[in-house]
């Protein structure tokens, strides 16, 4: 199997029955005398699958449950509140006048009472009969992913159906636990009004079984948005049809019942509202929030419906704990030669989600839906997509960030304390593996030398020489430029200073002069023309480059060059269930108020480009502040040092446009540095490949939030961040508020934007504003969804129509540096 995905195939009751009916001896002597289920599972594994996906129960269980809990109650949703029984009046129509003590009525009442007594006994002591379960032995359940009955309606609009469904759920989970099954797939939620009840039932399962993973099956969005059928609105007393007995056809995505979806028949081309596109994600957010972000709660994404093209809609799932990807064979289409392939949008999405290392659940492979390739063609095709996925290709490429960072993805690392701590040689070794950084440094030094006026002698000072990589690159730059130059190397780490002395004796000789000590306190033999330093952190200034260079600027001549000459911090709002759970594992306030260095993988940047409805928001990733060297406004004492560190205080207030609903778990911090001229370093996601592609030395910084913050569609996020200092420390504080634009003028007749908003008001969701997207109903092509909503960017006079209502805020994080700081 591949490195990024494992594979599982569905084994249905029909498969087991087929094996049971075979009269020929098993292909393997070891299976002689084994159960039909065991033989069916082994047959599937022989096709190369890692797991088998099996329903926990058989149709007989559904029949018994329906008889006790649904049919005996009369109308599932027809009774009044708290009424779990009774007969419909229409059942007596045509029977004539009912006799008070008729034998037929008495027999029915006796039968009803007997079944109700049976149901009550079951509610008290839930249990299975032998013919109601698929597996009965521990060895049968080995390597099995259990599938909970999909007819359980934990979010039914009927109180008693929900109650009895939950009892049945706990019964199935208890049996799966008895068989030591490690993962079960839960039926999808269907009813937005009662999804909290679904979530509460799942949370109870998490508490009852401490080791099992529970994976909620969900489509990317409600496929009813693209179906040419009526979507009934749920009302008190309405009837909900329960899912039928587990079918032997490949599992497909159920329709979701969303309050307010009482639309008429949809035309061939229609607009799917933002609410509809957000519906399943909104339900998932409720479920995982009620379950307190349990790391044992995961997602099984159903890729049966066509996918939207908008990358921001799809990107939100990158931040979620996707454990499985469900691919019914009905999702595949035939290519020109008749072999099964996936639509292009589904291909791209599946490739991108290989970073989750999912288990791909293939169903219906024995149905022969495609003319060529047979049963094995589906897994072979998905393995091809896995091997050609961006994450797999990048991880195999020597020198790439993905190859270098294997094992570090989404792993929280505390930033370095370069002034307080002396780095280990292994740490230097890791940073020195990055060729891109040192190539750019060498190029910057070479250009600075070439631009320096002709002189008999140029002095280069390397401040913070470490083990000497920048000294070596400076010597190469001198050689390339054919200039005469002398190097002074300053280092405070006594252990690294030994390595520098060794390299001076073996490699550099008299061309390099070593000086031991803290650059903020020592003096150097002569002032430098070019000052080179390597003190940057993931946020630019978070390893105290400004404070260190305040002292080192004494070494530089008034007209000297600093490399780097400037660096800028950047910020973006981030969603990541994985990082949020990792940050709160410590169980202390400190762990959620500490910025971490992280190689991002399962994350999603929530912000979009464009000004938003009010036209006041910036780009998706925004600048916070910049430090320049040498400073142009320096106030210095007699030693040439700044009297305080107040000049290094910074603050930023940034406004981000949030096009689609999401959860804010933290802020992503990046930096970009100008070394010299147009030579730089960058980890900015949108510019790093143009400036310093495949640079390994820095991962982004993650500022976590103590509590997730819900951001509605088309909202604005205002982020405040401060860099603060006292005599001993530097620290960051951060805070966020969310706003929704509102009209502050009366609508004018003929205004297309206001008419669109007004037309959508009747179906507006509490959770998402009513922007619309174009979609088509074909199951064979991707849903059409424009790259951006039609009225995001406003002219000034249009933007003036909008005010804003505050809808949420975070706490102030790390106030006074109480949890995290960098020591001076």
Structural features, described:
The chain is an alpha/beta fold. It folds into four domains: 6-58 and 133-394, Alpha-Beta Barrel (TIM Barrel); 65-79 and 94-129, no CATH class; 425-534, Rossmann fold, CATH 3.40.50.150; 567-741 and 807-823, Hnrnp arginine n-methyltransferase1 (Distorted Sandwich), CATH 2.70.160. Helix content is 27%, strand content 22%. It contains 21 helices and 29 strands. It has an eight-stranded parallel barrel with strand order 1-2-3-4-5-7-8-11, surrounded by four helices. Helix 15 (469-481) links the parallel strand 12 and strand 13 (485-491). Helix 1 packs across helix 2, helix 3 (59-69) crosses helix 4 (103-124) and helix 14 (435-451) crosses helix 15. It is elongated and about 120 Å long. The protein starts with 5 loop residues before the first strand and ends with a strand. Mean pLDDT is 84; it is low at 75-92, 225-256, 258-269 and 752-794. Belongs to the class I-like SAM-binding methyltransferase superfamily. This is Protein arginine N-methyltransferase. Residues 81-108 have a biased composition (Basic and acidic residues). One of its GO terms (cellular component) is cytosol. Residues 402-563 form the PRMT5 arginine-N-methyltransferase domain.
């Amino acid at each position: 199997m591949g490195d990024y995905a494992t594979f599982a195939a569905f084994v249905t009751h029909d498969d087991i029955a087929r094996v049971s009916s075979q009269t020929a001896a098993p292909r393997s002597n070891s299976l002689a005398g084994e159960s039909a289920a065991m033989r069916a599972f082994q047959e599937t594994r022989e096709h190369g699958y890692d797991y088998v996906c099996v329903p926990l129960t058989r149709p007989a269980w559904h029949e018994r449950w329906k008889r006790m809990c649904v049919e005996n109650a009369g109308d599932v949703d027809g009774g009044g509140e708290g009424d779990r029984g009774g007969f419909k009046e229409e059942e007596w129509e045509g029977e004539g006048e009912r006799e008070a003590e008729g034998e037929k009525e008495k027999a029915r009442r006796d039968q009803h009472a007997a079944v109700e007594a049976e149901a009550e006994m079951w509610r008290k002591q839930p249990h299975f009969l032998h013919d109601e379960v698929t597996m009965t032995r521990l060895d049968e359940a080995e390597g099995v992913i259990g599938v909970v009955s999909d007819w359980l309606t934990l979010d039914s609009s009927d109180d008693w159906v929900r109650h009895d469904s939950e009892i049945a759920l706990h019964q199935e989970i208890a049996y799966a636990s008895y068989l030591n099954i490690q993962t079960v797939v839960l039926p999808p939620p269907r009813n937005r009004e009662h999804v909290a009840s679904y979530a509460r039932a799942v949370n109870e399962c998490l508490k009852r079984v401490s080791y099992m993973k529970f994976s909620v099956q969900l489509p990317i969005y409600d496929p009813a948005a693209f179906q040419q059928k009526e979507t009934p609105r749920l009302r008190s007393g309405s009837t909900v049809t329960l899912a039928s007995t587990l079918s032997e056809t490949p599992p497909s995505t159920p329709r979701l019942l969303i309050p307010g979806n009482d639309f008429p028949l949809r035309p061939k081309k229609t607009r799917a509202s933002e609410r509809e596109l957000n519906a399943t994600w909104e339900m998932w957010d409720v479920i995982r929030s009620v379950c307190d972000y349990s790391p044992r709660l995961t997602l099984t994404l159903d890729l049966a419906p066509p996918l939207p093209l908008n990358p921001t809609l799809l990107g939100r799932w990158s931040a979620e704990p996707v454990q499985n990807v469900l691919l019914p064979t009905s999702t595949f289409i035939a290519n020109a030669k008749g072999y099964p392939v996936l639509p292009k949008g589904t291909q791209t999405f599946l490739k991108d989600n290989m970073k989750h290392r999912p288990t791909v659940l293939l169903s219906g492979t024995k149905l022969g839906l495609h003319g060529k390739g047979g049963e094995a063609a589906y897994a072979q095709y998905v393995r091809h997509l896995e091997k050609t996925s961006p994450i797999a290709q990048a991880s195999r490429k020597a020198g790439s960030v993905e190859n270098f960072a294997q094992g570090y993805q989404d792993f929280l690392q505390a930033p370095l304390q370069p002034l307080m701590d002396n780095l280990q040689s292994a740490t230097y070794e890791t940073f020195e593996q990055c060729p891109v950084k040192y190539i750019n440094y060498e190029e910057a030094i070479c250009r600075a030398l070439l631009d320096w006026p002709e002189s008999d002698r140029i002095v280069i000072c390397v401040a913070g020489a470490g083990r000497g990589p920048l000294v070596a690159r400076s010597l190469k730059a001198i050689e390339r430029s054919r200039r005469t130059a002398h190097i002074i190397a300053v280092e405070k780490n006594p252990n690294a200073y030994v390595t520098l002395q060794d390299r001076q004796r073996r490699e550099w000789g008299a061309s390099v002069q070593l000086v031991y000590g803290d650059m903020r306190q020592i003096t150097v033999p002569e002032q430098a023309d070019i000052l080179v330093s390597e003190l940057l952190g993931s946020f630019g200034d978070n390893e105290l480059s400004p404070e260190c260079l305040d002292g080192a600027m004494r070494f530089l001549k008034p007209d000297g060059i600093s490399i780097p000459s400037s660096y800028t911090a950047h910020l973006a709002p981030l969603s990541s269930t994985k990082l949020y759970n990792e940050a709160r594992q410590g169980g202390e306030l400190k762990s959620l108020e500490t910025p971490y260095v992280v190689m991002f993988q399962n994350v999603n940047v929530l912000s979009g480009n464009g000004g938003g409805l009010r036209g006041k928001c910036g780009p998706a990733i925004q600048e916070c502040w910049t430090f320049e060297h040498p400073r142009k406004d320096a106030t210095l004492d007699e030693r040439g040092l700044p009297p305080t560190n107040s000049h290094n205080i910074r603050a930023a207030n940034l406004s981000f446009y949030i096009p689609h609903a999401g959860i804010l778990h933290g802020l992503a911090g990046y930096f970009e540095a100008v070394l010299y001229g147009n030579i730089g370093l960058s980890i900015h996601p949108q510019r790093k490949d143009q400036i310093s592609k495949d640079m390994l030395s820095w991962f982004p910084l993650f500022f976590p939030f103590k509590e997730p913050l819900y951001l509605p569609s088309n909202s604005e996020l205002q982020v405040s961040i401060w860099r603060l200092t006292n005599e001993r420390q530097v620290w960051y504080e951060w805070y966020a508020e969310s706003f929704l634009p509102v009209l502050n003028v009366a609508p004018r007749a003929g205004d297309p934007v206001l008419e669109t908003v007004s037309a959508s008001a009747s179906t507006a969701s509490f959770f998402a504003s009513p922007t619309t997207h174009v979609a088509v109903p074909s199951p064979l092509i991707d849903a059409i969804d424009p790259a951006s909503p039609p009225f995001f960017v406003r002219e000034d006079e249009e933007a003036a129509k909008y005010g804003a209502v505050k809808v949420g805020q975070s706490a102030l994080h790390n106030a006074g540096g109480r949890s995290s700081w960098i020591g001076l």
